[in-house]
Amino acid sequence: MIVVCGPTATGKTALSIALAQRLGGEIVSADSMQIYRRMDIGTAKATPAERAAAPHHMLDVCEPGEDFSVSRYVQEASAVCDRLLAAGRTPILTGGTGLYIDSLLSGRDFAATEEGDERLRDALNAEYERLGGERMLETLRGFDPERAAKLHPADKRRIVRAIEIYRLSGKTISEHDAETRARPPRYSALKLALSFRERSALYARIDRRVDQMVAEGLFEEVESLLAEGLSPGCTAMQAIGYKEAAQALRGECSRAEAAALIKLNSRRYAKRQLTWFRRDGDTRWILWEQGIDIPAALREIEPLL
User: Fold this and answer.
1) What are the φ and ψ backbone dihedral angles of 282, each rounded to 5 degrees?
2) Residue 243, SS3 per DSSP
3) What angle do CA 202, 207, 211 make, to 5 degrees?
């Protein structure tokens, strides 16, 4: 398959559509927020015209108030990719959520680490509240010092999950991760990452995109979601753009202040995305100058196909 990744606002959708049309492929979204229905503007989801230009998958697959894990993403997206490959179509995995991309390509097994046991988890949560983070971290250190060294005593969720997984499977999270790394990847992929040669050009494009989202009705989209009764504390509403807009709608800041904060948080997120994708030495980078040039990118990619 082909992967088109990179930070926000770098032209991933446009390049993916061009590749889909060139190769007879279909786009599989790898975006942790575009999975939610009715969250279109703030997630920069493919428009109806873009979806008509090339088939898209893994968009609008759950409700905003619904829990959605990386294991569920891998399960559903791999089923799509397998179906496309069997039909002779090229899956073009597109998005900026690195964990989704890496987990899908590797074929990581989440059976033990994600399903878990609700009663055991409840008991461990109660134990954490009773004993405190330091004691629970010391327990974890007794059988998985590698993972314990990476966690803070206040990180209740990860400490509890690490102990739960060990008690359920007899293996530590560190062992599960090592086994995943040792297995050959589930899919072979040509990995392309997009960004701008100058960081300032990327940030300017992000700022323009936020202005466009506001003009297209971002605040009205968030207002509609809140009117449905969606909790401001749910995962979907913590997405960049939605959290800040909700603050403005509650009167905690002005809309102009919220827009400025969305730009700031989007730039920070883009920096984290760059760090994530640069870890992979097999990724081929396409760096724009001041603007996005899809024909030039296709000419650069052509010898790799």
Assistant:
1) -85, -5
2) helix
3) 145
Listing DSSP states for 68-102 in one string gives --HHHHHHHHHHHHHHHHHTTPEEEEE-S-HHHHH
Domain 111-182, CATH number (from 1.20.810.10, 1.10.20.140, 3.40.50.300, 3.40.50.2300): 1.10.20.140
Tokens 């499977």 -> residue:
169
Residues sharing a CB contact under 8 Å with residue 90, sequence separation 6 or more, in sequence order: 1, 2, 19, 20, 23, 24, 25, 26, 84
CATH 3.40.50.2000 given to domain 2-107+185-304: no
Instruction: Give Cα 19 to chain centroid, integer Å.
Output: 21
The three-class DSSP label of residue 51 is: helix
Q: Residue with structure tokens 């004993």?
A: 131
pLDDT < 50 stretches in the chain = 112
Q: Which residues contact 270 (CB under 8 A, 6 or more apart)?
A: 7, 8, 9, 202, 203, 206
Q: 138 and 110 in contact (C-beta within 8 Å)?
A: no
Give residue-wise pLDDT tens across range 203-234.
Answer: 999 999 999 999 999 999 999 999 999 988 88
Q: Which residues contact 24 (CB under 8 A, 6 or more apart)?
A: 88, 89, 90
Q: Which token pair is 49?
A: 């015209």
Residue 75 structure tokens: 């399960």
Residue 226, Cβ density class (10 Å: 0-12 exposed, 13-18 middle, ≥19 buried): middle
Domain ranges in the chain? 2-107+185-304, 111-182
- Give tens-digit pLDDT for 32-84: 999 999 999 999 999 999 999 999 999 999 999 988 888 899 999 999 999 99
